[in-house]
Structure of Patatin:
Amino acid sequence: MKKVSILSLDGGGIRGIIPGVILTYLEKQLQTRSNSNLKIGDYFDFIAGTSTGGILACAYLIPDLNGKAKYCAEQAVQLYLHEGQDIFKENIFHKIINPWSLVSEKYSADALEKNFKDLFGQTLLSEFIKPCLITSYDVTSRNAHFFTSCDAKINEIENFYAIDVARSTSAAPTYFEPARIQSQTGQTFNLVDGGVFANNPALCAYAEVRKIDFSSLLNNPGKPDKPSAKDMLIISIGTGTVKKPYHFNELKNAGEIKWIEPIIDILMSGNAETVDYQLKQIYGTLSHKDSKDYYRLEPPLHEALSDMDNATAVNVEHLRQAGLLFIEKNQAMLDEIVAKVLANQ
């Protein structure tokens, strides 16, 4: 049996440049070794994403006219490299009447939504080329909402336009207003960024994959049905290690306003670290060979700033360089991942 290859992408705003750069390298290596022009979405069996990772997941899974991946990894990362400054552009008048985002969200979602329309058009979740899981949170019904293409194919109430999926998973509190979207049956959902509970969606991906019959879904009898951990190859990619310290004297008398920034930062990085710990424990119970099939890629930020919305030209370039430096220092591991993905096609 071949293993199910899973790609999981963290949230992190503009820091999505880092996994985008790494995946561009992986895609080129996969194409070279397989002598094909397939794209990253064609190589993996399942893709999960949160927030900026959810946007990338949508981009990788949009079909072309032949039912293959429409966009290559390089095209997906261009959204951040070329449009980041417009997406995270604060209106001067808005900044004056809304200092520190105390009154309303920091940014208008107009530029974000325009880019989604250009990228995704009228594509539906049910049309994605591979099964996926993209996270968001329903603030009205107060429950986690998972966009999954498997559910979308069999139930119209779970089927949404890709532009709405991307908008929902990236509706980061204090940065963008919540997404108010409708399914294909007309039911309304009020959703925010999935990073509030699953900034690292790898464990959510593991749980979702456990229930899928991949042999029939992918029309590949070599793939397992309802796979367990030993049947999975998981590649989980973060958006840069954030180790900004918060000192006792800064927070000992802090109120709600002063806690906003650190609590969001701590929740996101803490969740990512916890999921990594849990998956390492799961894979640690497997045979020596199978235990090596979980990879967590968490690049250092180096000179890049950790702010999710710092899309200045200088920081965007630093983020790109952080991705390139990670590739340079971890080429052997990345080439090992490439070999395993191809071996399990």
In short: Residues 91-104 have pLDDT under 50 and may be disordered. The chain is about 45% helix and 10% strand.
